[in-house]
Description:
Distance between the termini: 53 Å
Low-confidence stretches: none
Amino acid sequence: MLERALQSDPPVFCHISVEQPVDPGTSSAARLPGALVGDNFVLALGTLVQIVEVKAQGVGALVRVQAEGRIAVESLKQLQPYIAGAVTPLLDDPVPQDSIGAALKAADELASMLRECADLCAKFGGMEAAALQQAQLWAERRPMTPGLARGGSHIDELERANRLAWAALSALPQASESELRQLLRYRLAAMAATSVVDRLQLATTCLESSRAMLAARVALKSLNIGAS
């Protein structure tokens, strides 16, 4: 699959969540937009993935990727040695003209919160801090598939708002198991949402909570350093 993806221009493939519930037709995954329900499986939560870097290993390869957008599997062509099929982009609903201003303002506020979280993350370092920095950079880039954007005004600004919402759903350093489970619920809700406005609201609520917990951990770390 990797070899075939690298031969395409651009080098992309699709990442699809595969679930095998007892009753596929009544599972929560089957209710997600674009889910493909089979006799004993559900294909849901798909995204387009671009290969950024490949490093050969003794066995296999280490692949760095960048995911973007949501896709739905329309049909399957093969199941082995990897799944292949036809996919279609899942586009968000157009943002009403009278909601655009509020959405762009919410995006700017979210970007400010992300910068604050990045500063707090620097106190800990680690993979989460680096990943948040990458998410911030990604949020400000132009999409790799600009042709998939929904028509209307303020396309670039709304795409940035959408990407900021996804960036805000990043794991922060030293998050507890309960925080990570809560983050997963927000991510699933964001995948199921069909509105940039709804996704911004979800991301803002999630990041506000995560920021408060992160700030508390930073304060506790400072107290421990001071006490020592």
